Amino acid sequence: MLVGKLSGLTYRGYLGDVAIPVLAALLVTAALLHFFFRKELALETPADDERDETPIDRPLLVVCLVGLVGAVVANLLGAPLALSALAAGTVTLIAAGLRAEKLLAQVDWSVLLFFAGLFVLVAALQRTGYPAEWVRSTEGVLGHGSLALTAVLGLGSQVVSNVPLILVLEPWIRSFPDAGHAWTVTALVSTLAGNLTLLGSVANIIVLERAKAKMGFIEYAKIGVPVTLVGTAVALAVLMVG
């Protein structure tokens, strides 16, 4: 959504460009995860009476699916991404029938504070003028190739996370001769690069906070690094061929 706002790429146009590359990367990711966890997957699952299952609220599930389909259709028709997502989320919250205090009690404020802090740091970095100066000083070295953009996005996402990184790199990305293609690669690679390490994406941090079994940085990287490198390579290859 951030790339869409900065670049002007449409939901429908971007989907048409990356749908097949992303599906190819998803298949590769699934295959690699199945390979890495083949021993765990081979274990017998517990009997139904031993599982701790949460009852399914079927009416609410239907509302969620309708909201999701409605948001996708609205996006395809050209509606603003943020507005369609907000509308679908609002309908779902109303259907849930929960009071505001119960909803607020479920908000993970520590993650929101962490995310807000990242953007404060990025804004401060932009005010220093360093990103623009970096673009000028490295333009001759990095050039405007997709491989250079991929490398910078992949490594930079591990330092400041993928979303704030896009704000830092915006001047450089805009300087590409084919800015539309550069923004497409940015949206695709920055999303996949978030899987490389635990710090690559805020979503990873949210999952880690929610996980009952804590996971170490190295433990995650053993899976994240090969999955991300292979998946990104496949997605880019399909994108370039297409």
Structural class: mainly alpha
| Low-pLDDT sequence parts | none
**Helix fraction by DSSP (H/I, runs of at least 4):** over 70%
Order of helices and strands: HHHHHHHHHHHHH
Count of helical segments?
Answer: 13
Q: How much beta, percentage-wise?
A: under 5%
How many strand segments?
0
Give the count of structural domains.
Answer: 2
Question: What's the Cα radius of gyration?
Answer: 20 Å
Which sheet architecture does the biggest sheet show? none
Query: What is the general shape?
Result: globular
- N/C terminus separation: 23 Å
Mean pLDDT, to the nearest integer, reads 85
Explain briefly what this protein structure is.
With 242 residues, this protein is mainly α. The chain is built from 13 helices and no strands. The longest helix has 26 residues, at 11-36.
Notable features of this structure?
13 helices; mainly alpha; globular
Description:
The protein folds into two domains: 153 residues, no CATH class; 53 residues, no CATH class. Helices cover 77% and strands 0% of the residues. The chain is an all-alpha fold and 242 residues long. It is globular and about 60 Å long. The model has no long low-confidence stretch (mean pLDDT 85). The chain is built from 13 helices and no strands.
SSE blueprint and pairings:
Elements: H1 2-7, H2 11-36, H3 38-42, H4 58-76, H5 81-96, H6 100-105, H7 109-127, H8 130-142, H9 146-160, H10 162-174, H11 179-193, H12 202-210, H13 217-241
